[in-house]
Amino acid sequence: MNFQQHFLNRLRALPERDTQTFPAEALPAEFSRAAVLLPFWPTAAGGVEVAMMLRPDGMPSHAGQVSFPGGRCHAQDATPADTALRETHEELGINPAEVRVMGRLDDAFSVAGHHVIPYVGWIDQRPRLNPNPREVAEVLIVDVEVLMRPENAYEHKVIFRGAERTTPAFRWSADDYVWGLTADILLELLLWVRSEPSNRAALRMQRMNILAK
User: 9: which DSSP letter?
Assistant: First the structure.
C-alpha cells in the first residue's frame, strides 16, 4: 500500500473518532463560530498534497499568517461544514461539489475570538484554483509526506500577552513554514494518519482556560 492509499484509508476512518467538542459553558461569550477546511488531493506519484494560504498583511486578524481556508459561520449556512465549503470556494475558488467531507477534527479556537471547527476534505484530483486576492496573498500547496518528516516538525515561540508561548510548527522549505492554530490542527490530523494518540484537545482546553483568566 502506498502513502496515498494509506492516507485515504485513514481519512475514511475519521467518522470513527471520538471527536472532542468544547462545553458550551467553556466558550467565552464573545467568541463567534467559524469553520475551516483541510483540502487534500492525490498526486500522480502516489502522494498527497494539501492547500494552505498566506493571508495578506492588511487582514483584520491573523494578517501575514498561513491558514486553511475558512471563516465565520453565517446564518445561511446549514452546518459548519457548509461554512467551510463556502469559505473555501470564496477564498480559493474550489467548487464545493468537488469536495468530499471525510469528517471533522476536534474543536479548536483562535485568540482572535473564534470557536473553530475543522473539517477534512478530499478532492479526487488537483482542483482548479482561483484565489481571491483580497483574502489570499499566496496559495501554498505542500506535499504531506514532507510535512510528516520528523526533521520538519518543531516548536515555534511567540510572545502572547507579555509571555513567551510555544506552538507546533512545520517547515517544508527553507523559507516556508506554518505555526499556531493552523499547525496545531494539522498536527492533530497527522497524528491520526500515523495512528498515534492526540493530546491536542486537552491542550486547547488548557489554553482556553488561560485565555479566560
Answer: H
Read off the pLDDT of each residue in 44-64 and give the average, rounded to a whole number. 86
Alpha-carbon span 63 to 56, nearest angstrom: 6
Q: Decide: pTM greater than 0.90.
A: yes
Domain span at residue 208 reads 3-212
3-state secondary structure of 168: strand
In this structure, what is the dihedral angle of CA atoms 131, 135, 137, 141, given to the nearest 10 degrees? -50
CATH assignment of the domain containing 80: 3.90.79.10
CA atoms of 57 and 53, how far apart (whole Å): 12
Tell me the Cα Rg of the chain. 16
- Identify the CA nearest to 118 among candidates 19, 29, 8, 16: 19
Residue 144 has pLDDT above 80, yes or no: yes
**Mean pLDDT taken over the chain:** 93
Residues of the chain with pLDDT > 90, as a percent, come to 79
Name the domain count of the chain: 1
User: Residue 141 class from Cβ within 10 Å (0-12 exposed, 13-18 middle, 19+ buried)?
Assistant: middle
Residue 25's contacts (CB-CB under 8 Å, 6 or more residues apart) are: none
Half-sphere exposure of 202 (CA within 13 A, CB side): 3
User: Residue 148 corresponds to which cell in the numbers above?
Assistant: 510528516
